[in-house]
Amino acid sequence: MGDAVCAELEDLVHFSVPELPLRGYGVMEEVRRQGRLCDVTLKVGDHKFSAHRIVLVASIPYFHAMFTTDMMESKQDEIVMQGMDPSALEALINFAYNGHVAIDQQNVQSLLVGASFLQLQNVKDACCSFLQERLHPKNCLGVRQFAETMMCTTLYDSANCFLHQHFVDVSLTEEFLSLRQDDVMELVGCDELNIKAEEQVENLSTGSHRTCLVFGWCQGSDDRWCCSSQVFEAVLSWVRHDDERSAVLPDLLSRVRLPLCRPHFLSDRVQQEALVRCCHKCRDLVDEAKDFHLMPERRRLPAFKTRQRSCTSITGLIYAVGGLNSSGDSLNVVEVFDLMANVWERCQPMRTARSRVGVAVVNGLLYAIGGFDGQSRLSTVEVYNPETDSWTRVSSMNSQRSAMGTVVVDGHIYVCGGYDGKSSLNSVECYSPETDRWAVVTEMSASRSAAGVTVFEGRIFVSGGHDGLQIFNTVEYYNHHTDRWHAATPMINKRCRHGAAPLGSFMYVAGGYDGSGFLSGAEVYSSAAGQWSHLVAMSTRRSRVSLVATSGRLYAVGGYDGQSNLNSVEMFDVENNGWSFMAPMVWHEGGVGVGCVPLNPL
User: Which long-range contacts (CB under 8 A, 24 or more apart) does 562-571 make?
Assistant: First the structure.
């Protein structure tokens, strides 16, 4: 009977105690605390720490390499650790035993240095996250410099973006006044500075202030208003901090976009500044800016001097370009939306019908790029001048593309992915308006058509899309300084044909198609938290929707709900956390490309 039962059972039984390794480490930590069985001593200055080689080998890559090779230290009982903080080394040795380390404001830098030395990437990442979550105008410059020294790319990018977003507040700190000349030069010339305008208007009698639009004019002649350029005043503060810095004022002033300032401000503030009056080169720069206003026909300044800095709170006009009619035919129609009046008006049509068209705005000009004319995918590009209400042709792309992403960084247009009529593309092209030339840059990691593409914190983010076989939720971003792509946190939902736009310190995606349904849902990404979260859904399902930010709000324009093309428009108000309908487009039935041209009364 017993033999029969045994025959029916398996010959092999696996028995395990899952908590044994963890319990074993606890025992080893207690043994170490008692000073028993330790076989190595780590020394920093006058401080000595005993430990077990096997634990260090198992937990810390630096010691694994040291003790498992023929290095001299592998035979030594006492090892001198150069350049490490004693308390950080002790904390990291304890981490090797219990997997826990306490990070605070006092030890985070020494821990990060120690973790980097010992190749403890997880602790290093935790320290970077700690610093990233506590960025402040008073510390972001120091954090950025520290991150650069430690080669912490993600932390450096976060601190750099925080600096751009909070430039005005940062410029009032001691850290800013202590910057090196090269750093100030780079900063004041940066396109991504989050200033609402080159000018800030201050009431001299009340001390209150308000901000004009770029090229905007101040109202209310009864008030004693003066204008002070946020960047100009930051430069003056830095120069005045050290008497020896006055010699570099011309170089710094050349980075301030004086042509974007009002003539009254140039005459009444900049020209009257003592440091400017006593410098011939500075006076020449002021005259150059004044001539820009007085003689428009002679405007031959470098593009960066008249390029508006990026800021989505500036009011602009939204242009709907190309797209589809109710029958699904491609259109050459263009209409513009006035946010204040809540009305759409028709503009001069394009020369070519274009749906799934890329749209970009550079220096107040609107570019219509590629698309589908109803028969072929296009490589041609045309540009619209709102002042003359006319279109002209410029150089074509290297590839035919529709359903690609189009963005602007540092005055250059980037197109990412798309569809050439045969397959989805992973290639990326960059256009320089100054030279009228397209150049190929590093390709994306995946072929993406109908992806959401936007500029967020100075980087080009590409979300979702499809390659003809699958729809993605993955996200990658491009650093144009290094010409490299990096993986980013994926979205919660996979989606293609969706809209993407930045607003403030967040990136938004809305609508699209996930392979089984048309979406009304939206998501928002926080770089500080490093994650996506759900946003309140739109009122309407929208595939092929365009998303654009202006005046501190998001606008979802057009799209397709699964049954018909849409001419409706929804606006998302961040403060109220809700969507509301705006005036619908008049001449379009969805599938439009959109661009926002800042108001420019000059």
Answer: 562/517, 562/518, 564/326, 564/589, 564/590, 565/324, 565/325, 565/326, 565/328, 565/589, 565/590, 565/591, 566/540, 566/542, 566/590, 568/540, 569/337, 570/538, 570/539, 570/540
The distance from CA 50 to its chain's CA centroid, rounded to whole angstroms, is 46
Q: Is 318 helix (H, G, I), strand (E, B) or coil?
A: strand
Under DSSP, the state recorded for 248 is G
Question: What are 323's two structure tokens?
Answer: 């797209």
Binned at pLDDT 50, 70 and 90, residue 217 comes out as very low
CATH (one of 3.40.50.300, 1.10.3720.10, 1.25.40.420, 3.30.750.24) for 169-306: 1.25.40.420
Q: Are 148 and 142 in contact (CB under 8 A)?
A: no
CA separation for the pair 21, 17 (Å, rounded): 9
Domain chopping of the chain, boundaries: 24-134, 169-306, 316-598
> 24-134: which CATH topology?
Potassium Channel Kv1.1; Chain A (3.30.710)
Handedness of CA 350, 354, 355, 361 (dihedral sign): negative
Q: Among 41-45, 142-146, 165-169, 476-480, where is mean pLDDT lowest?
A: 165-169
CATH homologous superfamily, domain 316-598:
Kelch-type beta propeller (2.120.10.80)
pLDDT digits 0-9 by tens, 502-519: 987 799 999 999 999 999
What order do you get walking across the sheet with 334-338 strand by strand?
A: 343-346, 334-338, 316-321, 593-598
pTM over 0.85? The answer is no
Residue 356: phi and psi, rounded to 5, are: 50, 45
Bridge-based pairing state of the strands 40-44 and 78-80 = parallel
Residue 534 falls in which region: left (phi positive, over 0), alpha (psi -120 to 50) or beta: beta
Each residue of 557-585: pLDDT tens digit? Answer: 999 999 999 999 999 998 889 999 999 99
Which pLDDT score, from 0 to 100, does residue 26 have? Answer: 77
Range in 123-132, 313-322, 344-353, 441-450 with the lowest mean pLDDT: 313-322
Do residues 344 and 335 lie in contact, with contact meaning Cβ atoms separated by under 8 Å? Answer: yes
Amino acid at 225: W
Query: Are the C-beta atoms of residues 92 and 120 closer than 8 Å to each other?
Result: yes
Count of C-beta atoms within a 10 Å radius of residue 468:
10
> In the chain, what is the straight-line distance between the N-terminal and C-terminal CA atoms, in Å?
103
Instruction: Determine the average pLDDT of the residues in 285-299.
Output: 77
pLDDT of 199 higher than 70: no
Neighbour-count burial for 297-322, b at 16+ CB within 10 Å, e otherwise: eeeebeeebbbbbbbbbbbbbbbbbb
Helices and strands, counts by H and E, the chain: 18, 30
